[in-house]
């Protein structure tokens, strides 16, 4: 609210938020934590102790129902480790969910799906800043993944036995430095070309909006060169 000029200080923001019924803050750290000013607001009489208790009570009731205060032995999930979470059954279910969640916007001449039995006979070029960069494949608010379980387009195709050549063209999504000659060389020798483009958290996240939907940097040029 301070950033939108609804209030003039963190203290005013804390008072307005608590009075409006807000009981949880997504804080930025101690230096920019609005609710750290609640004790001052309480001392000044801007909020009452009863109001503060009313705001806190549902938070702790929820935490109790979630079992946060139970002994670890009572928590059935406390004994689970990666051998369970990353078991073949769980990984296969995750794969099934991922496959079923894809949305194919266009499939000219039935190009997809690529048939696995033909991949070894064809030369594939996988290009673009998202072709083999695990770090940029996850969006905002995504969990921190285990690198060993990340399959980039390049890694996935190579595991299928495909003959893959790769170049990023530009190493980062902003694509400010584009190596055209390298891309043209790799694409020119291929039967099938996969161009992996996008934005990622380096370009857009919450509070980092863009003015347009254009591909960042030289990505459009990279795509046009690949098509040509």
From TrEMBL:
Domain Glycoside hydrolase family 3 C-terminal: 103-226
UniProt keyword annotations, A-Z: Glycosidase, Hydrolase
Keyword Hydrolase: yes
Keyword Hydrolase: yes
GO terms of molecular function: alpha-L-arabinofuranosidase activity; xylan 1,4-beta-xylosidase activity
A Gene Ontology biological process term: xylan catabolic process
Name of the molecule in the record: XYL2 arabinofuranosidase
Organism listed in the record: Brachypodius melanocephalos
